[in-house]
């Protein structure tokens, strides 16, 4: 691909949270590679009059951002929603560049986040079984004696992540084989290895109950027998879990995982580890009552 050596552009999606956005940009600007990186900002349009004031504040703020090699701003007239914004924005940038790094407007990053992401995007570019990389890790119980700084799991992260054009091109946003997955319990169980919330989310996506790019991207990875690459220690901290986010309307203190600075060993031949996958799946285990609700309300 000849992609190593050049830095991945950063794509930042924002909507109506100027205070969160400012913290996200400020922490990104402190990254060692910020001044050498191009930044694309996608600002979604307002849903209604209440929103338009906050959207206007966001746009006043982004007009004054500096500290990056180049800044490209795209402002949507009408509200597209996060899923459409991400799919369209990422696809556009990957039509021009071989790889990219994606952030939303509620992510604090460690100062070596961009360094970590660029190294991972270079080292794992040609691994057909790695579809995405992320700087975030959920607070899982890492099995004792796990020897690496990174791990592979059958799930994509939507928090501070990156991918490559030739892998993003394989995504099936329509989920065309949904029916055969629905009729195949073994396949559904295999898909749920990355967390037993995955199949219910995909089913809700196809029923139009939710609109998520991330569940479809995770499913595309599953179809291609591919993994997401995660660090054992986070380079990303989410600050949007205060109830202000589009897809995160309940408050949660669980995401205050501290970020870690410092170099990470990246073995090119890293393999998935069963114990890590189990620990990761445990973290995303659905509460029993939610499973009942899914069955009764959505027939999932």
Descriptive labels:
300 residues, 11 helices, two-stranded antiparallel sheet, 8-stranded mixed sheet, alpha/beta
Notes on the structure:
The protein has 300 residues and is an alpha/beta fold. It has one domain (10-298): Spore Coat Polysaccharide Biosynthesis Protein SpsA, Chain A (Alpha-Beta Complex), CATH 3.90.550.10. The chain is built from eleven helices and ten strands. It is globular, with a radius of gyration of 19 Å. The chain has helices at 18-29, 49-63, 82-94, 113-123, 165-168, 178-182, 185-191, 198-207, 213-223, 274-283, 288-298; strands spanning 10-14, 38-43, 70-75, 99-104, 107-109, 130-134, 150-153, 161-164, 227-231, 236-238. Mean pLDDT is 91; it is low at 243-256.
Number of strands: 10
Number of domains: 1
Low-confidence stretches are 243-256
> What is the alpha-carbon Rg in Å?
19 Å
Q: Number of helical segments?
A: 11
- The helix content, as a percent range, equals 25-40%
Structural class: alpha/beta
Looking at the overall shape, the CATH architecture is Alpha-Beta Complex
Could you name the CATH homologous superfamily?
Spore Coat Polysaccharide Biosynthesis Protein SpsA, Chain A
The average pLDDT is 91
